[in-house]
Amino acid sequence: MMDRNTDFYVNYSNKKGPWGYVAFKDDLIDIVKLGRVHFLFGGFLIYTLGALIAVDFGADGDVFKFIFGYLVFFPAHLSVSYSNDLYDIKADRFNTPSPFSGGSGVLLRRPELAPIAKGIALGLIGLSLLLSFVFMAVYERTVLFPLLVAAGALLGWAYTGPPFRLAYRRLSEVSTASAVGLVVLFMGYFVMSEGGLTTILYFLFPQLLYGIQFITNVQIPDMEADRKGKKITMVVLYGRRFSFTVMFFSSLSATLYYTVFWLSRIGPVWEVMGVFALISLIPTLSSLPSLLLRPKDRGRSTVLATLSMASMFAYLITANLYFLLR
User: Fold this and answer.
1) Residue 195 banded pLDDT, cuts 50, 70, 90
2) Quick one: which of 52, 70, 92, 201 is 20 to 30 A from 182 by CA?
């Protein structure tokens, strides 16, 4: 039986448990769809950016270490899709999926796959933690590394999973912004860097701001469904117009942060900050129409949120290319 915290009950009397279920072709296809693997690309770009920052400032550019580190992160990130689809089912009943929000819709059609989704989510987290200890042993890292992995996995699960269910307790923005803005970037850096962590600290605050922009983009198309599903998000509480304003000023603040550091010539990264001030104009200028229009309807809001999300990918790709080519 599914966890009662989902408020969603299914009769499994004629179904086998998650580990005894025989998945045929259609089942396998739906199980893969639950993973929404296209969502992993953004996490990969952030992880890579953290790794490239470390290498650019003196860390060994060991490709195998980079790949191994990502293999540690990958299962934990993938698990989020399975747990969110499972524990967001009540809100997703009222939703039409957008390119980056609203769930996969698989469990709405195939509720019998719910135990498998839960088993996969927990299994992926366990695999990620196991690999983190292997990485720690191979590359002589401290226990901080598996703790970092555990923190990221916990934040991903806690978004909708019990007992935390942060999206239903006014804390969804905190959990997602922390994961996207702090943990993933820091992990990419920590995988490659064997020395101090001072350099990455300069980049965490603007990435946290982009984490706020990211989660706002995700929540804007889902406002009506989230309200019916009893989720308590910023968009549900304050509406789309306010949220578009927050989204723009989060991005603008990141640009100003980079600019101030570049002009002040503080720290060893000030030259890089000048380049990032320019690159950061991509999401800032792309969010300007959202500030000027601030529509209330779902259709136009989803278009603007999609534009903003695309600009964040463009920012990350450009930032990674800068470090690769310089």
Assistant:
1) low
2) 92
Q: Read off the pTM.
A: 0.89
**Domain layout of the chain by residue ranges:** 4-325
By three-state DSSP, how is residue 101 classified? Answer: strand
Closest to 312 in 3D by CA, of 290, 289, 288, 279? 279
Buried-exposed string 129-142: b where 16+ CB fall within 10 A, e elsewhere:
bebbeebbeebebe
* CA distances from residue 3 to 13, 17, 161, 314, 326 in whole angstroms, order as listed: 16, 14, 9, 39, 50
pLDDT band per the 50, 70, 90 thresholds, residue 4: very low
Residues in the chain: 326
DSSP letter for 98, please.
Answer: B
User: Which pLDDT score, from 0 to 100, does residue 248 have?
Assistant: 96
| 107-119 per-position pLDDT tens digit | 888 899 999 999 9
CA dihedral 209, 213, 216, 220 (to 10 degrees): 160
Residue 176: name the closest of 218, 205, 223 by CA.
218
